[in-house]
């Protein structure tokens, strides 16, 4: 599952691939938004952790990764 996270005052979004289901990721995001510490903690497929303060979140997009096509062939 691909997760894109928008952060205040950042020109680029954070993108990670997760082995979790969309429902699991949504639960983690919702729990972080209601937690008093306000810290979103996600782990990608390689085991790297991403920690973002929820006060700085602008959006979280959860979806399947898009396959990018390369070349000049017609479809």
Task: Describe the structure in your own words.
With 75 residues, the chain is an alpha+beta fold. It has one domain. It has one helix spanning 22-34, and strands at 2-7, 14-17, 39-43, 49-53, 57-63. The strands form two sheets. Strands 2-1-5 form a three-stranded antiparallel beta sheet, with helices on one face. Strand 1 and strand 2 form a beta hairpin. The mean pLDDT is 87.
List keywords for this structure.
two-stranded antiparallel sheet; alpha+beta; 3-stranded antiparallel β-sheet; 5 strands; 75 residues
What is this structure's SSE topology?
Blueprint: E1 2-7, E2 14-17, H1 22-34, E3 39-43, E4 49-53, E5 57-63
Antiparallel strand pairs: 1-2, 1-5, 3-4
Concise synopsis of the structure shown:
This protein is 17% helix and 36% strand. With 75 residues, the protein is α+β, with helices and mostly antiparallel strands.
């Amino acid at each position: 599952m691909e997760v894109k996270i928008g952060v205040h005052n950042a020109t680029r979004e954070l993108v990670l691939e997760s082995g979790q289901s969309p429902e699991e990721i949504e639960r983690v995001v919702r729990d972080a938004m209601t937690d008093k510490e306000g810290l979103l903690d996600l782990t990608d497929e390689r085991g790297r952790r991403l920690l973002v303060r929820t006060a700085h979140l602008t959006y979280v997009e959860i979806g399947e990764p898009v396959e990018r096509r390369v070349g000049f062939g017609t479809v």
